[in-house]
Design brief:
The chain has a domain at 301-396. The longest helix is centred in the C-terminal third of the chain and has 18 residues, at 355-372. With 401 residues, the chain is an alpha+beta fold. A hairpin with a 2-residue loop joins strand 7 and strand 8. It has helices at residues 7-17, 31-42, 56-62, 72-78, 102-110, 121-134, 156-167, 185-188, 200-215, 220-223, 231-243, 289-296, 355-372, 389-396; strands spanning 3-5, 45-46, 82-86, 90-94, 170-176, 179-184, 248-252, 255-259, 276-278, 317-322, 325-335, 340-348, 377-380, 383-384. InterPro entries: AlkZ-like. This is Winged helix-turn-helix domain-containing protein. It comes from Zhongshania arctica.
């Protein structure tokens, strides 16, 4: 027998768990400590290279910490409080969770789990020896004049570096102009980091608890999303935790979810009234598209991978969260040379009726978003439905960053 939540209650629980429902962290701590706290709570921050607007890892943290600065991640990496590795994708992870990256690393090292690059063991040995002798190196430090290989057109040394990184022999000590700098793992880790591999049971419980702390409610397929070979472990551990009362089962609109019992207290906290967030396509809230469709009735596809003539909304449309709902998407391009933020297309969901309210909320949020993207000018080029264009342009004309 499961308890039930309305879809609206589930959304509220999710948004509080995602730290998108409040007015932001208090000023009692430092800005960088708020950034670390957000990373530790969410469990990971996805790294992405697209720079139509500020990159996704910065954008995601800015939405949780209004005092976020793009130097924070470099500082936290240097102080060994976060590290780079793989979550469901490339990500910054809290160093306190380092030991839970070991099951994947050990599986890749043993050959139990495949890697997108075939290991070249003699080359990997030579690369490792050179880093041990010379210190941190980038892929460009390895000369190669031959043909680059594979889908990503990468040179052999880059492939060797990535194999060594994914299996745990190397870590990323820093980034220079967004390029990875590889170093021996033992020289990156601080002396207090727990390097003991978790037991199978510990690992299963970690994956479940981390997911539910950050996401409020979840299903087995969501918890194991893009985590190879974890589905049976998560299914078994979920059954055990439900039987022990560590989790509760919830019916949400006819679908079954699980949650941590203590998380249900978040339902007593109201959502921040009229709060609007301009989200990255790679924001932790949005990364599972089927989940967004089921729980937020928001059918989202990032179209940068879609041929231009087939795009409906634009190259890099940013979902708009307002009053607890996903109500629009905004395709943006920051022209940093001209300090100009171009809203190429603002598409409003058909379910939204209060366009004036949305325009007002956007006018309050856009100045800080422009500053975040180092822009002082704003242009709106297209809106859908088209009759909203004049309303929105009139509202935006009053914006002063």
């Amino acid at each position: 027998m499961s308890d039930s939540l309305s879809v609206q209650q589930a959304r509220k629980l999710i948004l509080h768990s995602q730290q998108l429902a409040t007015t932001g962290p208090s000023r009692s701590g430092s800005a960088i400590s708020a950034t670390l706290s957000a990373i530790e709570h969410l469990g990971y921050i996805q790294i992405d290279t697209i720079s139509a607007v500020q990159r996704a890892h910065h954008h995601t943290l800015w939405n949780r910490n209004p005092h976020y600065d793009a130097t924070h991640l470099d500082q936290l990496l240097a102080s060994k409080q976060v590290f780079e590795y793989w979550s469901h994708a490339a990500a910054y992870l809290p160093m306190r969770d380092y030991r839970y990256s070991l099951p994947r690393k050990h599986a890749i090292a043993s050959g139990e789990q495949g890697h997108w690059y075939e290991p070249d063991k003699p080359l990997m040995k030579a690369v490792l020896k050179r880093i041990a002798s010379e210190g941190p190196l980038m892929a460009k430090d390895f000369e190669y004049r031959g043909e680059k290989l594979g889908e990503w057109r990468s040179k052999p040394a880059k492939r060797a570096l990535e194999c060594l990184y994914m299996r745990g022999d190397l870590m990323i000590s820093e980034r220079r102009n967004f390029h990875k700098v590889y170093e021996l793992t033992e020289r990156v880790l601080g002396p207090t980091v727990n390097t003991t591999a978790p037991t199978t049971e510990e690992y299963g419980r970690f994956l479940i608890k981390r997911y539910l702390e950050a996401n409020g409610v979840g299903q087995p397929a969501e918890i194991s999303y893009l985590r190879k070979n974890t589905k049976p472990l998560i299914a078994t551990t979920l059954r055990s935790m439900l039987a022990d009362g560590e989790l509760v089962q919830l019916d949400v609109g006819g679908n079954q979810y699980v949650a941590l019992p203590r998380s249900l207290a978040l339902l007593n906290t109201p959502l921040a009234r009229n709060k609007l967030a301009i989200l990255s396509p790679f924001d932790n809230l949005l990364i599972q598209r089927k989940r967004m469709q089921a729980l937020f009735n928001f059918d989202y596809l990032i179209e940068c991978y879609v041929p231009q003539h087939k795009r409906q909304y634009g190259y890099f449309s940013l979902p708009i969260l307002w009053n607890g709902k996903l109500v629009a998407r905004m395709d943006c391009k920051a022209d940093r040379r001209e300090s100009h933020l171009h809203i190429l297309h603002l598409a409003v969901e058909p379910s939204l009726e209060n366009i004036d309210g949305l325009a007002h909320a956007l006018c309050k949020k856009l100045p800080s978003f422009m500053q975040f993207n180092r822009c002082t000018q704003l242009s709106l080029h297209k809106a859908s439905p088209n009759n909203y264009l004049a309303i929105l342009r009139t509202a935006f004309a009053k914006i002063t960053p």
